[in-house]
Amino acid sequence: MMCGEKLxxxxxxxxxxxxxxxxxxxxxxxxxxxxxxxxxxxxxxAEKVDETHRTGYHFQPPKHWINDSHPGPMxxxxxxxxxxxxxxxxxxxxxxxWAHSVSKDLINWQALEPAIEATKPFDxxxxxSGSATILPGNKPVILYTGVDKHNRQVQDYAVPTNLSDPYLxxxxxPSKGNPFIDPDRSxxxxxxxxxxxxxFVNGEWHTVVGSKRDMVGVAYLYTSKxxxxxxxxxxxxxxxxxxxxxxxxxxxxxxxxxxxxxxxxALGKEVKHVFKVSLDLTxxxxxxxxxxxxxxEKYVPDLGSVDSWAGLRYDxxxxxxxxxxxxxxxxRRVLWGWANESDGEARDKDKGWAGIQLIPRKVWLDxxxxxxxxxxxxxLEMLRSPDPRKLNSKVLKHGRHVEVDGITGAQADxxxxxxxxxxxxxxxxDPKWADLPAQxxxxxxxSTVPGGLGPFGLLTVASEKLEEFxxxxxxxxxxxxxxxxxxxxxxxxxxxxxxLYKPSFAGYVDVDVSKTKKISLRSLIDHSVVESFAEGGxxxxxxxxxxxLATGTKARLFLFNNGTEEIEVDKLxxxxxxxxxxxxxxxxxxxxx
Length: 593
Ligand code: DQQ
Hints:
This protein is mostly beta strands. It is about 5% helix and about 40% strand. Mean pLDDT is about 95; it is low at about 1-30.
């Protein structure tokens, strides 16, 4: 595989190639950043924008490249602010600024001027990811990584120029106090970035910066009494061997019960903590659940909560550099993730755009305490059409597919519950699969290899005669007296176009189907993205797809069952989805709608 290709699987070979590509990119730009660099493409402004695969209700600027949700969202004085990495000059990574949009509801967005651009010696070679923190007195501050004139990654801050501007249009990066963290000699200055939202404990502010020492992933901890002078703690907050670089760390408390979110500084006897890293080598976001020991200044994952590679992912598909924030308005924790393109840089240049932000998700702790649950924010429902298509008690016999007519298969929100009478026909789980990533099992079996209990589910973004389709589906296996539920979003047949990355993404769902004999699914379908939530958000998978036939009004939606056990569609509701206001400029003097 060449560096220009996207990472195709999580096999060891691909990971080595990915590591090699990072090094090559580093040599070209002189710093160790994780984005591939295409010097000949990065300053080519889009002449036109190809709308075919643009999303209808996901966050996108009108053109050009975006990456990372990690610059992150913030709720301030009645408005949501979204900052993200953006190339104003082209459709590949480069010339990065912090773009800035505002919203009243996290769905309709208006664009402002960039909040941060490379202008100072301490960020002249790049304004990379970071986070916002609201200080006492209701004062927002941004912590971000600047690439300085010596190509070192340093940590900088920016504050609003005018706190009484309701939109916080303009930000200043004071020369006094910047950079606020300089990497000392013991830190790898080309792998030292993405400060977290700061939290306050033991009379001090705390922030974490992602890094690595050889292959050890490291979350360096810094503390400050006054938010000006920062000191590195003796020990990192957390580290783990064999993971490589930790980008975009996120660290936050979760309530042991219920769905309410907690402020980033919240502590309490029963409060658990989540620690997330974006793993540069695999390009997936992994998290653990554990305990924050504030006396020892250490985070310790719970027994069984495994760091990185073999651990839990927010999303088993295309989802990276995510960031959560505490929404003071609705007392919830909201997670944003970025999905890049899978169609190649040449296509991105032709399309005139690349990258989307996924639909914000509410996150909370599963009652088992072992994983998080995620669900699209309630506000998304304002885009649902008033007259959804409904199906009840529809039987799917072996080998059948049934069209869900009356809805636009390119831009929909679908909720469905499947049930079955018995688990007797579940296929045995091959012991050889125990060490394979779920996506390899999904790839072997696909949607057309007949099974016992499954595969069944939806065929999304499908063409009329099924030349193109993306199945989102379940297969149930028997394993040592128990059952294992495999959840797949398989892009293998998503497009007739050649040269695309069409992965079979998959994860297992921690659910005891022998009790319920039911399983639920929600899919957000939006032209070139399918975001799917199994069993109330236990396992989530995002796929990017580029159909050639199943585009616009020609895209269809089907139900299918290729297992011998009959499946009943207990209840299906499918809504056409409307278009929100998407990044229309908010002119000076105007008010947000
Ligand atoms: N993207 C940023 C870095 C971050 C990476 C640069 C993650 O700060 O580590 O655009 O995608």
